[in-house]
Design goal:
Length: 450
Amino acid sequence: MKLEKSLLCVGITLALSACGGSGSGSNNSGTDSSGGSDNGNNFAVCSVEDQNQRFFEYMKEDYFWASQLQEDLDPEAFDDVYAVLEELRVPEDTYSYILTEEEYDQLFVSATFFGFGFSMEQTNESQVKFRFVYNDSPADTAGIKRGDELLEIDGVAVSELLANGEFNDALGPNEDGLSRELTWQKPDGTKQTERLSKVEVETNTVMGAQTYELDGQTVGYFTLDSFINRTGDDLNSAFDLFTAEGIDHLVIDVRYNGGGLIRYANQTATQAAGTNVQGKTFLQYRFNEQNSNQNRTVPFSLKNGIEQLDLDRVFVLTTGSSCSSSEIIINSLNPHIDVVTIGEKTCGKPVGQQPEDLCDKVTFAINFETVNSEGEGRYYDGIAPDCSVDDEIVADWGSPEDPLTAAANTYISTGSCPAESASALIKKSAQERSFAKPIHNMKDKRESLQ
């Protein structure tokens, strides 16, 4: 596979990604135009040993922590390039990964998968709730919403399937046409049963875009689930709504957003803050010492954006699954406008990577860090919220019953966080916490979909 520069490398500053999904677009296929080897070693092109050797050489040159790597590596001592990555990974790096061409295409290019069109979370030993539902999917058509509880699969109780370790098998593989009878319950206790068939689902990245009135002012709300190739258009649809309604406040929900293309973090921030940030520094890229010539500063830009707001304050909803480009929105806006974060501490990923082709794989090794216009970054421990509120799946996106949204509404109305950050109202038990399964990267997110 050859990475498409037209999609991913419109100048390096447009292509860099804090969670993977953009990059240099270089082609390391290991063959010249006549089909011979140009890999520079004695191993067969794209053999395990060849991949191991070339990946090590790449890491020695481009890895952000290259200075900490060993001088030599025996490429024949490792079963595959994945094992080489684990050997080279420094303690600070919990983010580098490798995808197959197919995985890369599904995550960052085609943005589709075969399934019912929802994501779930097991909230305790016997309960599973729907996290989100993609537009126009079988689940969406059937009326499933975030906050609904899955009760049965083909007549068998979810609690029984979980107890017997049969839950995942009961949903079946993600194959076109596979069907299951699902029974679910709404937050009001209403139950519904319907047979759903898996189809190719397109993953919209903006969910729940809406406006609502609060104390005589108009609030705009949307959930931004990821930053991939279609995100620019999805953002435009949301901001078309917000500018048409003339909103006074904006709530950006990135509670499950594991990151992606930085250019869409830039678009989000610029469309929100408009004239308050245009012409100013969005972020600075910093590479390792031997690649410091690649360091550069990127201004705020609408990118694919059309409409913009000129807000001097935004609210951002976060959890431990808010990573990378999601955190960049917060860090980059902070020096210029008031950013009120509500929810849980973010995951802590102030570094990023450019994808690199390696035979039938695409490697995502960390090779830069990002800092804002004030040089602030390195939030490896996460960004702490201004209002600490535990996430809980109890209602649909933007609902006043959702604890994070409710806290944002309280702040808009009163100018401060809810009393004790509303902890008495939304506090999870220790047991519930032990069963929640947060998503920390794009590959894990893909594997959680049905």
